Amino acid sequence: MNKIFPQGDGNGNAAAGTKALPGGEGDVPQSLPSFLMARCGDPTSWIYSDQKCDGINNCGDCSDELSPVTACPPCGPGWWRCPSTVFKYCDCIPRVLCRDHTQHCSDWSDEYSCPGP
Question: Which stretches does the entry tag as region Disordered (predicted)?
Answer without folding.
Answer: 1-28
